[in-house]
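Weekly modeling sync, notes
Attendees: AB, CL, MP (scribe)

Item 1: holo prediction request
CL wants a bound-state model with adenosine-5'-diphosphate before deciding which constructs to order. AB pointed out that an apo prediction alone won't tell us much about the pocket. Agreed to run with the ligand included and paste results into these notes for async review.

Input as submitted:
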Amino acid sequence: MSDAVKVLLVDDDEDDYVLTRDWLMEIESEQFELAWVDTYETAVEAIGRCEHDVYLLDYRLGDRNGLELLSVALCSGCKAPLILLTGQGDLEIDLKAMRAGVADYLVKGEIDAKLLERSIRYAIERKRAEVTLLEAFDELELRVEQRTAQLKQAHEQLQDFFDNASDLIQIVDLEGNFIYVNQAWRRSLGYSSAQMQHLNFREIIHPQERDRVLEAWQRWQSGAGDANLETMFIAQDRTAIAVEGSINCRWEDGKPIHIRGIFRNITERKLSEARQAQLLKEIEGANQELRDFAYIVSHDLKAPLRAIGSLATWLATDYQEKLDAEGQELIRLLVGRVQRLHNLIEGILQYSRVGRIREELVEIDLNELVSEVIELIAPPEQVTIRILSPLPRVWCEPTRMMQVFQNLLSNAVKYTDRDSSPARDGDRKQGNVIVSCQDRHPYWQFSVADNGIGIDPQYFEKIFQIFQTLSPRDESEGTGVGLSIVKKIVEMYGGKVWVTSQLHQGSTFSFTWPKHKVEHR
Ligand code: ADP
């Protein structure tokens, strides 16, 4: 490929071509390859092929001129520089040509080899610089477009994120005018875009809350930091919407700009809390009534029952001679039933006292308490009660704790002592009852284990219900209240009670008790 600069001369005068060719040959520093066309039409065709590095256009081309050719060349996308050649003193053409985009303008009479070479060189250099600049500009434009697209995408993602958030998001200016709210906000509060334009944050705060929130508003503006806020907004349909969230102020150059808030609609939660509180109140009321009822009824039943008992005993003693064996047996049964009824009433009274009559909480040493209970129970010879591990000190109502151990230990003794199954050596089986404690942080776990009659697993739940006993009514002197009292007391302190047992092997009753001081429920 030749390095020569390809020049096309468009001139209808052959003399000018010869002259130009001679000038170009004169130039030693550069090689030129000169082509020549002499009509406007052939020039249009040649320029359209874009084969040349530079074009020299004569202004006069028959009834056309070089400026027309110039505009055709530029329209056809000609990238090479065009130099216009004119006669002397056509200043007007010079200006027009420059505006139209020629690279240079040469007056024919003043041209010599040097001037031509310089003009061609400068025109080519300028054009190259121009092309490089244009390319750089195109590149820049492309980057701006890409960046704009990325920003648009990021903006859309952000918008999508806010709109799909379930929280209510808002931005207001320092006067309280809304700058932005997301869809969840609109959905919850129901204001239209047109309403939003005239809406002020102050107007959506529930009247009861307004003073408090506006006071806080001053603090947020003065940069008192982030603030949690639970309040009530007023929706478009005038319903109150309970919200909780956080508010913070955006600062720029040390000045507050706007206030952002992110809230959660907690109306449902608040309603269900209120319903729950109401329900609890009702249950508490009903419970209280029931406790009072149980107490009053049981209390009032005791007096006539005592009278019946006395009458029956009196009958049995004073009329002993007048009654035959059957009559005496019936009276014995009557006294027994009265006693049983008395025990039941006593059980109800005890049960109703738990939680109704409250003692002060004290920290007590369970070793002492359990020893005292054992002494009270006074187990028969064939039953031994042992405390396996040292027991801790716990916070409790002493009477209630005594009841728990008394009921568990007396059951253990009762249902061990009752176990008449002979041991292998033929003697009556020795009853063993063991009290122990384990650390189950944050609870203590206490167990009362015996080697008595045991309980069928199908009754593990049933025995904790009030009045539930496993032996037939007539045989049992128990009322079925003891374990239900234990359960009630333990649960009142947040603990649990359960049993593990195997028939004829023994039972272990366990319960947990909090280590720290708990006000009972
Ligand atoms: P009560 O002992 O007065 O009948 P409780 O509520 O204390 O009432 O006990 C309910 C039932 O659970 C008892 O009737 C008995 O059948 C069973 N039970 C309780 N403790 C034991 C135990 N240690 N061994 C076997 N059975 C027991």
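Recorded for review: The pocket of adenosine-5'-diphosphate is lined by residues 407, 411-412, 415, 450, 452-453, 455, 463, 468-471, 476, 478-484, 507 (CB under 6 Å).
Action items: CL to compare against the apo run; MP to circulate these notes.
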